[in-house]
Amino acid sequence: MQKLRFIITLIALSFAAACKKVSDEASKSIDKKEKIVVITGVTRGLGRALLKEFIHEGWTVAGCGTSAAEISNLQKEYGNKHVFSMVNIADNDAVKTWANDVVSRIGSPNILINNAGVINNPAPLWKVPLAEFNKVMTINVTGIFNVLQYFIPAMIQTQQKQGLIINISSSSGKEGEEMFAPYCASKFAVEGLTQSLAKELPKGLTVVSLDPGNGINTDMLKQAYPHNTSYYPDPENWAKKAVPYLMRISAQDNGKSLIVPR
Question: Among residues 150, 183, 225, 231, which one is catalytic?
Answer without folding.
Answer: 183
